[in-house]
Amino acid sequence: MANKVHVKTGDTVYVLSGKDRGKKGKVLAVNPDDMTVIVEGINITKKHRKPRGRLQEGGIIKQESPISSSKVMLICSRCKSPTKIGRIVRENGQKDRVCKRCGEIIDTEKEAKSE
Q: Does residue 109 carry a pLDDT above 70?
């Protein structure tokens, strides 16, 4: 069974620890197997790339590296602060992510199994 990560692609997150502590960014990718996320502009590393073929240029490129999902917190769009996420299930079986601070529904998850 795959692990569940509390953030999704496209969420805005706040970095809690590490060299980029206090920065905000948008989640570009989520890897639930490793429990890691790639955040735009966070954990930038340099990679030495060798040119492959005539048209590709070699050199040192900067790219985002994965960080643990436990080091990021979702930023609520309503209260504009880092918050924990709660989940509620509606009567029709629909699941929602909810801000623990203000109670705002962040977004709706996939439909529950229909019968």
A: no
What is the reported pTM? 0.79
- Using CA atoms, how far apart are residues 78 and 93, in angstroms rounded to an integer? 25
Beta bridge partners of 113: none
Query: Phi and psi (nearest 5°) for 23?
Result: -85, 155
**Domain segments of the chain: what residues?**
1-50+63-75, 80-115
User: The CATH number of 1-50+63-75 is which of 2.130.10.10, 3.20.20.70, 3.40.50.150, 2.30.30.30?
Assistant: 2.30.30.30
pLDDT above 70 (res 39): yes
CA dihedral 9→14→17→23, nearest 10 degrees, is: 110
